[in-house]
Design brief:
There is one protein chain. This protein is an alpha+beta fold. It has one domain. It is built from three helices and ten strands; from the N terminus they run αββββββββββαα. The strands form two sheets. The chain has a five-stranded mixed sheet with strand order 1-2-3-9-10, with helices on one face. Strands 4-5-6-7-8 form a five-stranded antiparallel sheet, with no helix packed on it. The radius of gyration is 23 Å and the shape is elongated. The N and C termini lie far apart (about 95 Å).
Length: about 190
Amino acid sequence: MPTTIREMLVSSAVLAVICIAGCGRQPAEYGVAKSEISWTISTTNPVPGLDEASVTMVTLKAGPPGGLPFVVWSDLPNETSGQGEGSVHGAFYDGHHRAIDGRRVDFRAKSTDGKVGSITIAGVDYDFANGQLFLVSGHQDPVEVAQIRFDLNGFPKGDALKDLAKSNPQIRGFFEKHKKDDTNAK
């Protein structure tokens, strides 16, 4: 009888160690999560990118819970579109923003592991390690892109983005600079 109790105790201890080692893990996630918004605010002197904008927020999911988020924010306010998928082999997203006058910016993001990745915007490659917020001005050829380090945890959605556009100095400064360039060019 003591041997049986000892064996049960050892078996219970081994089972507890296995459970502790594996029970805290979150399951792997695969796919793409996205949120898109475009807006145009009627004002006498609109600033493209602030008063007229498109924002695409994407998370590439290729294993780790949470995935790899990024944001493309442009001054092309008419259309946002895109699609992607994720699997054990990686995740990708192909998207674009388009203005009513036909100007368009294409982008493609990819990650093999859901932790690191890259994006190509208008034919130029960017590493997510250098920032995951991309401000895009399509009012000149070629388009201008600013890659910004920005904490995307709790990144606002919907109308709250309009407030962020006006209150964040990096976002506001980038698009105001291009408004001035656009005005001076005329």
